[in-house]
Structure formats: C-alpha cells, structure tokens
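Render Amidohydrolase in 3D.
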Amino acid sequence: MTPAAVAELTVLRHDLHRRPELSGEEGQTAARIVAELERHGPDEILTDLGTHGVAAVYNSGAAGPTVLFRCELDGLPITEISRFAWRSEIDGKGHLCGHDGHMAIMCGLAVQLAANRPVRGRVVLLFQPAEETGAGAADVIADPRFELIRPDYAFALHNLPGLPLGSVGVRSGPFTFASEGLAIRLTGRTSHAAQPEAGVSPAAVMARLVETLPALPETLGHSAGHSLVTLSHARVGEAAFGISPGEADVWVTIRAIDDELQADLINLAEELARRLAEAGGLGVEFSRHENFAAGHNDAAAVAHIESAAELLGTARVEVGDPFRWSEDFGRFGSVAKTGLFVLGSGEDHPRLHNPDFDFPDALIPIGTRLFEQIARDLCGGARS
C-alpha cells in the first residue's frame, strides 16, 4: 500500500470519526462508504442490507470460495473528551470503539482489490450496521439478499488496547462470550410510608436478587471463567420519603462461553426471580435486550489468519482464555467458517468505550495488509 493511499485512508477515518451515528441510524455513514467504494470498482454494491448495511463484491468470475470481510458502521452514545482536530462534532456520540478505523481498513482492502483483483471466487466487503446493540448481524443475515453473498469464510478484526501496537491475537474455538441483558420488573402495591403494612413492597426481593444473581454461576457449579452475571441497574420505588414502594427494577447482563450455557443461565435467572417474587407476593415481568451470540473461531479460518500474520512478519500475542466481551460478528458463525482476531492498539492506549479513546491510525495499513493476505490465500492474486 502506497503512502499516498494510507494518507487518503487516514483522512477518511478522521472524516468518519467527526460524524458518528448510533446503531440503526447509520444512513449518512453508509452513504459516505458507498461513495468511497464506488471509486474502487467493485463488481456490485448492495445497500440497505438489514437496515443500513453495505456490501461490495469483487467477483473473479471463476469458481472458488466466497470470502467475506466484515467491519462495523456504528458509533456509541458517549461524549468524546479528546481534543484531536477530528474529534466528534456530534454531542453525545463518538466513535469510541474504533469502528471508524475498521471501516478505513476495509476501504483499504477495496483499494488493494481494485488494483489486483481476485482470480477465483469472490471477495465481499461487508459494512455492518448496529454492531453495538447486537442487532445488526442478525438483520443482515435475515435480509433475503444476503443469499447473494452468503460466504464460505467470514473474517473480522477488532482493535484492542492493552496489546502491543500492531500485534495479532487469535485462537481457535471459543473467542468471545455470548451476552444478553435481562431486565426484571417486580410489581407489588404502594402505600403510605406511615403504613407500609398496607402495601406490598418489592424491596426485600429486589435486595435478594441483587445479592444472588451475580453469584448464580458459582452456585450452579459452572467452570470458573465460563459465565458471568453482572448487576447493571437497580431501582426501587420513587425518590419520595412519604411512599412505601410498589415496584422495582433489576437489570443484569448475562455472559457465557457458548450459546447453550447462556440460554441455560438466562432461564435459571428468570426461574429464580419468579420463585422469589411468588414467595414475596409480587408480580414479575421480564424483557431481554442486546443479544450477542458467542463467537467461535473455526480452525481453518484461524489457520489463514495465522499464515497471513507469519508471512507479513506481524508480531503475535497469545490469547489464552476467550474474551468476556461480546462481538456481533459471532452471529456469522451460523452461516460460515469464521475467524475474528484482535489487533493491538498499544499497551497504554485508552480503553475501548472510554471517552478519550481514538483509533490509532498506524493500524490502518497493518489491518489492510492482513485482510488482503487472507483474501489472496483463498481467492488468489498477487498482493499489491
């Protein structure tokens, strides 16, 4: 990749960073990406996949695999505090997870494929909406036009602070946890604070749930590190001294190493809440939010990632246990051999979702070269 191309991609990254859009609202970002892709001669561009998804197809016309590379379009509802010239211009929104950089890398792959097209199969560049809410991948896969680009292999990367800049981390098997938010609403009956016996307060049951839900994996005997229940919100009644409360909310985020364990853990959490609510004379309702599938890396896909890193002389870091955070890319494991790897953002770099995070521009050519080498391994053509 030429220095001029890297400079253009850096300008693109900064432009995307200035104008973040939240999950499900990425229309302007998608239009900006389409305009960029049209400069690099794909054989086909699909738009509005799922919601705002964009896919560019480089088709050799010869038999071979369909290899999909995925990045994300959305930003986060967090106010950025950095003072870079390209900081977010939209209050309360920021590209504080690096999706702007991931998009720049994908556009870099488009530059390389335009200069040296695949000689077998197809390479598909997918810009996915709504990654942060866990809705985008499912929406894209459910779109009937996804069948036109259904891949044999799917690859993605995520930058990761705490690792040496430009280093690659990958492992076969479980890679990222499943995750889902469970909201529990307890309903009793309010009363005057001077006559609490006239009402039905959910306070004691709420307190019991706050205590027992985070300990659920341990009490069930789950292997250490295989599941996690995190209390994220709790509220009882109104902020008033004269009322004995009649309702309460408890929110937990439930995570597990695979989808089966995740489903079991959510069901058990609901059973516990029902049992305690019934004993306390309360009603109980549930709602689920932001469902992420567990990410499982296929061994064949990982072999291509490792081969690319070795050929390019990219530093490697060991990934022991799966990451407890979630990535919507895990959903693509239901339709393809998937490989997700992390790309180090620097050992002292601000962490993901922090208000001072900014994607390191030095990763743009590194990520592009890795993606291109994987594409060449599977679909041929000399690396540009």
